[in-house]
Design brief:
This protein has 461 residues and is mostly helical. The chain has one domain. Helix 1 runs parallel beside helix 7, helix 2 packs across helix 10 and helix 4 packs antiparallel against helix 5.
Length: 461
């Protein structure tokens, strides 16, 4: 089930890897989309706003889990590319310990401070209890989130993006069924929607474990591989922490923005909630291409193929930007119709606000496409600090719009918050990629020189 990306057509590798990742992300979106649809249809716009008001808080915590796991997986891909399978297993063993430790700490902190975070983000009083009931259950499921992202990240780093897709299809269908049962049959409200998500994610963890046990001999580790190694842990944290912080920094900016939007009232919150679901689906394509670029760059970094990395990144950028243009046209033409999946046709004001947000963001999809491909390529090279700085700039830009411009220009300013963050991040990340490639080339040259010297010394011996 593994795939070696160090040979063959970069375009073919990126497309064949990205398609399953996209559909996997699409089905993962169904976790929240199923919640939104069932909540909106059965509990009304207030409940929809309640779930939506937790979006930035949710991503603040869950995003850290995802980023950390993704940063860890880079080391698996690099050692797979260099065919150093002994080191690959040692990294796998230490990843298990780190994910277990982080999952406990993050869960405890998230649960303790959950209510305070909702207060700080100005969650409207009329939806506060529903929002709390939803997000507190999600936070209790953080260990499952960590485990799934760790296991699926390992599979993807070995070149297999299809197995996580199959698992997500099954768990998404489970989520939809449980959402209907918990809300309609049991009457558990927003808490039921969250519980359905957590149970479904636990199912996806079980599915990953079964597949890895049957099909991925490379990561079948021994007791010696599970022994903590400080050198491996240090390297894992060196790439994982910046990636986790990147996701959290982005979310902090979104949380500040969310706080400003919450002050505009539940109608504005509901509009951005509905629009963000489509924004997430459209953005999943470029994220999938970026994930393909991460694995492609990491494997070829391990193999020392610097020219091949350049070719792969160029290919990813062309495909992602081309898609972003098509996506904008689709949103512009059919955005109002798509909004009706979540919003009653009689709520014309809500539909108009939702459409305004969708079109504004879609006009800048090219900018986020560059971020996803270039930033994730840098991650694959192993330079997590550069990626984190880009996230910091996104956070500042998004937060600044929320603090300064939303109180003045209202909903229109909220629509431009993400596009502004994307453009500013691009101004940093593109030249940073050039610098990262120079560092990577120098690193590869130094490693080859050391290998040559070692061979000479071995011959003399």
């Amino acid at each position: 089930m593994t795939k070696d990306m160090t040979t063959g057509s970069p375009l073919k590798h990126i497309i064949s890897f990205a398609i399953p990742v996209f559909f996997g992300m699409l089905f993962q979106q169904f976790y929240s989309i199923a919640d939104m649809m069932v909540v909106s249809w059965t509990l009304g716009e207030g409940a929809l706003a309640a779930v939506g008001s937790t979006g930035a808080v949710f991503f603040l915590i869950i995003g850290f889990c995802m980023g950390l796991s993704g940063g860890f997986a880079v080391h698996i891909a690099q050692n797979f590319g260099s065919k150093n399978f002994a080191e690959l297993k040692r990294f796998t063993g230490n990843i298990i310990w780190l994910c277990a430790g982080f999952s406990v700490v993050v869960t405890v902190l998230a649960v303790i401070f959950c209510r305070s975070i909702l207060v700080i983000t100005n969650t409207p009083a009329d939806i506060f209890d529903m929002a709390y009931n939803y997000i507190i259950v999600i936070f209790w499921g953080i260990p499952a989130t960590f485990a799934y992202n760790m296991l699926s990240g390992i599979m993807r780093s070995l070149g297999d993006s299809r197995s996580p897709l199959y698992i997500l299809i099954a768990s998404s269908l489970l989520n939809i069924g449980l959402s209907f049962m918990f809300i309609l049959a049991f009457g558990w409200g927003t808490m039921g929607a969250a519980l359905a998500t957590v149970i479904s994610e636990i199912g996806s963890v079980i599915g990953c474990l079964v597949l890895i046990a049957k099909r991925f001999d490379l990561v079948h580790i021994s007791k010696s591989d599970l022994k903590p190694s400080w050198s491996h842990i240090r390297r894992l944290l060196g790439n994982g922490i910046p990636m986790g912080l990147l996701m959290s920094l982005t979310a902090i900016g979104s949380t500040v923005l969310q706080s400003s939007v919450n002050s505009l009232g539940s109608v504005s919150v509901a509009a951005i909630t509905a629009a963000s679901r489509f924004d997430g689906i459209c953005g999943s394509v470029t994220v999938a291409i970026g994930n393909a670029a991460t694995t492609f760059c990491a494997q070829n970094m391990g193999a020392g193929n610097i020219d091949r990395i350049k070719k792969g990144v160029r290919t990813g950028v062309v495909v992602a930007v081309g898609y972003s243009i098509v996506a904008f046209l689709i949103v512009m033409l059919f955005g109002r119709t798509l909004a009706l999946l979540f919003i009653d046709a009689e709520s014309t004001d809500l539909i108009n606000l939702t459409y305004q947000y969708m079109v504004t963001c879609a006009a800048f999809y090219w900018a986020v496409a560059l971020i996803h491909v270039v930033r994730l390529s840098i991650q694959g090279l192993g330079y997590g600090t550069i990626v984190m700085i880009a996230g910091l700039l996104e956070m500042v830009a998004r937060g600044a719009v929320g603090i300064v411009f939303v109180p003045i220009f209202g909903f229109t300013a909220a629509c431009f918050a993400s596009p502004a963050a994307w453009v500013i991040a691009d101004l940093f990340i593109i030249p940073s990629f050039v610098i990262a490639m120079r560092r990577a080339a120098k690193r590869i040259a130094n490693e080859r020189e050391m290998q040559s010297e070692n061979l000479v010394l071995s011959g003399e011996t």
